[in-house]
Write a structure and sequence with these properties.
With 113 residues, the chain is an alpha/beta fold. The chain has 2 helices and 9 strands, in the order E-E-E-E-E-E-E-E-E-H-H. The chain has a domain of 77 residues: 3 Solenoid (UDP N-Acetylglucosamine Acyltransferase, domain 1), CATH 2.160.10.
């Protein structure tokens, strides 16, 4: 399960108990083709094609193609992408391009073991 930490308690008024103050909603975006590990908590935007490790707590935005883990989540490295796929996956592109999909999701017959 993934927990989205975008709903927070208001704490601005001292004359009203915290549990009775209206919540503060901050929208959180998760980019396409991003993989979120089990029990991760997402409280900031996650870019496209990212991997977030199980149990990680994302408190700051994670850039495209990043692999991030830990509490708080830190970028370990970036996923390797060849120039053709990277060009086809520009953030402004909506939908999918066949060359990008086939490169990122190879058919079993094209895998090298």
């Amino acid at each position: 399960s993934v927990m989205n930490g975008s709903q927070q308690h208001g704490i601005g008024r001292l004359d009203v108990p915290i549990r009775e103050q209206p919540g503060v909603f901050v929208p959180v975006r998760i980019g396409r083709d991003s993989w979120i590990g089990e029990r991760a908590i997402i409280a900031a935007d996650v870019g496209q094609h990212c991997v977030i490790g199980a149990g990680s707590v994302v408190t700051k935005p994670i850039p495209d193609f990043a692999v991030a883990v830990g509490v708080p989540a830190k970028v370990l490295r970036f996923r390797k992408v060849d120039d053709t796929v990277e060009k086809d996956l520009r953030p402004s592109v909506i939908g999918h391009r066949p060359s990008a999909v086939s490169t990122l999701n190879p058919q079993p017959s094209t895998l090298n073991f």
